[in-house]
Every structure is written in C-alpha cells, then in structure tokens.
Amino acid sequence: MDDGVLTALLLGPLVAGAALFASLQQSEHSSSLPSEEHPLAWLIDSPLVLNPSVQPLDALVRSRRYLIQLTTLCSAALLVHLCTSRWTWRDGYTSKSEGTRTWYFIWFSTLVAGALFTLKRILRAFEIFVWTDLSTFDIVVILLFYQLSLYVMVRLGRRAFTLGELGAVGHGATAMFMETVYLTSAKIWPVTTLYVKTFRLPTPLLTFQLALIPGAFLTGFLLSPLLVLSRNIAQKPYRRLRLPHEKLFHQRALAAGFYVLAAAIVAVIVGSWTQWCLGGQNPWKWVVLYIFEGRRNWSRVALLGYWGLLGTISVGAWERQLAKARKYRQEGTASGAVDAGEKDASLLSVNGRRKFFHALAVMMFAPGIAFDPAFAHLSFSVAFSLFIFVEYVRYFALYPFGASVHLFMNEFLDEKDGGTVILSHFYLLTGCAGSVWLEGPSRILALTGVLVLGVGDSLASVVGKRHGRHRWSASTPKTIEGSVAFATCVLASAWLLSVFGLVESFSIPRYALAVGFGSVLEALSLQNDNLVLPFFTWSMLVLLRAVTGT
C-alpha cells in the first residue's frame, strides 16, 4: 500500500539532485550564459551578478548544492515528525484542544530544529559532514518555515493533501521562500556574498515568480480577517443572523474591501519589492515592453491571444454543457435503476472532464514552451497566482463570483479532492510548468510535464479503462496495458517534436527508459499524478543522462 512516505521524503532530494546535475551539464557546455544558438537562449535580461569572479552558471551549481542540503534537512525533520506521530497515535497522546495542539506543535518544531542543528555539530566533530554549507541562520529559518508550512497545510487543508503531496509541496514552498530570502538579502547586503544563492538563475523571470506566487499568499495572509468573515457570513443561514436583511450588504462590503486592499498590496508592497529587485525598473512597464520583445514583436501578443481564445472557448463550452447537465438532473428520473445508471455515467464523465483539461494543457502550453520558454515561464507564474486568488474567491465565498466558481469547479472533483481546498488544477499547472521553472539545459526537458500529463497520463487512463485486462496488482485498478500506452505515446510525441525540429535530438533508448520508470510510478503510486509524475520523470531524464555521460 502506497502511504506516501517515500514520496514525501525522497521526491524533494531527488529533484534537487537532478537539478544539480542539470546545471553541471549546462556549465560544462558553456562557461558563461547560453549563446543565442543554445537551446535555452531565452530572450530575457541577464541574471544578477554580484561578483564578476563567479559566473552565473557556476553560481547556479553552488546554489543547487545548497538546495540538496535544504531538501535533505527538510526530509530529516519530516521523518522525525512521522516517527513521533506514529508513537503518539499508538499510545493515544492527543489533545482535542486546537490551541493546545498549536502550542505543542510550536514547542516540538523548535525542539526538532535544535536537535537537527545539534546533530550537525556532533557529526562534524566525528568528521561526518552533513549540511555543511548551511549556516545557523539557514538551518533555523528553513526548519521553522518548513514545519510551519506543513502545519498550515494540515490544519487548513483538512484532508486535501496526502502525505506524499504534503512533503513535496512543503519542499517546494520552502525552496521558494528561501529564494526570496536569499534574493532580498543579496540586494540589501551584496558585500556579504559572492553570488545570489537562488536555485534558478536570478533573472527577472525569477524575480517576478517570487513576487507573484509568494505575493499572492502574502495578500491572503494580510487580508485573512476579511476572508474569514466572508466565509462565516456565507455559511450561516439567514435565521441565525442577527440582521438577516443585511447579509448581502455585508458580503458586498467584505468583498469590495478585499478587492481594493488586495490591489493596494499588490501595487504597493509586492510592486515596490519587484521594482527594487529589478534595479529600479517599473515592473508594470517592464512586463508591457517584454510582451513586445519576442522573436517577432507580435509573437507574444499572438500567443496571449491564442491562450485567451482556447481558454474562453473551453470554459464557455463546459459551462454550457454543465448547465444542461444540472438542468437534466433537477428534472428527476422515473426509476431508481435509471438513477443508478445516471450516477455511473456521471462518475465516468468526471474522469472524461478532467482528462479534457489534460489535453487542453497540451494544446495551450506545448506551443509556448517550444517557441518561447521564457514567456511561458512568466505566464505560468501569472497563472498560478491567479489560481490562488480564484481559490480565495471560491473558498471564502467572495461576492459576486464565489458561488458560481464553486459550482463550476465542483463538477470536476473526484475522490482525490476530498478536502476543503481544491488542488487538482494547481497540481496540473505545476506539473506542466515545473519542467520549465526548473530551467533545464534542453527543450525536451522543458516539455516533460506537458507530455507526461497531457499525453501519457490521459491516454493511459483511456486505454486502461477500455482495453486493460492485466492489473499491476489486486490493490490498484491500473493496468499494464495502460502503462504501455503511457510510455509509448509519450515517447512517440517526443520523437515527433524532434522530427519537426521543435526540440533537439535526444537518445531514444534513454528517454524510453526514463518514461518507462514514470509509467510504473503512475501505475503503482496513489499520490496525485499531476504533481509527482512530471518531477519524477524530469529527474529520471536528467540523471540517466548524467549516468550514461551522453
């Protein structure tokens, strides 16, 4: 049974190790930044350089060594929590008081941070060097933030995360938080370090991502009182309100307050930080000019129009179809047998609806990644931040869009979306974007997420359900036929991209082996495929190339 422990503990270090090898491969082929002929010659400003003696790619290699130590440190902390949790649950040491549990967690998290720091010092005395590049400040901040993020996800998500997803998201959140800390400290005290310790090249793309995604969470945190009030009012029936006739007025007032204050936070706090990191350039002006700086001055505008057209048509068509389905269900049926059949059809349609968006991801994202990965990088960051605000609107029932957004998204939920927070669309976007955000040395790597989810996972589901006969095990519905379809279709798609010159040539046996590993993971793992599969397959592609040396 896959309980997610291995995913939670090992996926982060695996991706970090693969990222280090990817930067080593890139550094070996270029002593400076990529030339215009290099497959990663993204049209973007040069990365921030603090000292000319350290080239950007050399700094990236050093920073990703930090990333490996960061992820292993977080995994060690999670392992301590898992062992302690199993011991306390076995002996019944639990508290029903929310406040007591919070204080216990704060106390225990501080104890874990101190224990791991002490462990580092003890091992160093025996000449066993672990986490050697992490300062005391790094260890304290990393451990406290990682454990805090786990607690927030567990308490607020309420069954939305599996253990594997919890560990993976915690690793990613901590890495992004530390990138923000390192970039900010390098701008404040540039003389204290030779290079910026970010785990991607410190270009404006990274600056905007750190402004957009952490900035969206910061906005929600600062405006949490308004959000909580909005949800509480929306959940209470009219008869339980002291002034029922003012419910709509309060909802409108809270929503207006959130929208206005959120815009102010983005414009003032987030915008000012971004401008400061960009060396005084106005971020809004920078984005507008950047849109017209593609390979053609119209190419990025056309790409935006293409994305907007596909998104509008897809959402509009689904909204119309779902409205018809809801109307049909409201009319009722004549017998229970028909009701059961309708229920089965509905369950099947949910899978079809979700796989439709996987196919849509290929149509939307593949052209952007293939022709303009830098713009796709920025666009993914914008989309993720917009998803965060849409989830605020849905979960906290912000007027006037909260109810309609909730009803629309509710039609695409399955058994994996059992928590209060809906995460599937976040995972799908992250899976497609992660291969770009990791900034690997080739375009075929950048397209890993889109191919694995949009092609492999979708066709594995279709083939497995229709033609699958041989299950991997009695405990899983996944079939060997579906896994073969997964690997075959991803490999064929990558080969076609190479034939048409959209990606560089690659080793077919090595690619087939990496995708084969991914197909087995897809069949045996109970974690969310959208989150785990792309990062695992990306890591396998990089590590197999490092092992074979080609």
Automatic annotation (TrEMBL):
Listed GO MF terms: dolichol kinase activity
EC numbers, comma separated: 2.7.1.108
Secretion signal span: 1-18
Membrane disposition: Multi-pass membrane protein
Segments crossing the lipid bilayer: 66-83, 104-123, 135-154, 166-185, 205-233, 254-278, 298-318, 356-376, 382-408, 420-438, 444-463, 484-503, 531-548
Gene Ontology CC terms, in alphabetical order: endoplasmic reticulum membrane
Similarity annotation: Belongs to the polyprenol kinase family.
Protein name per UniProt: dolichol kinase
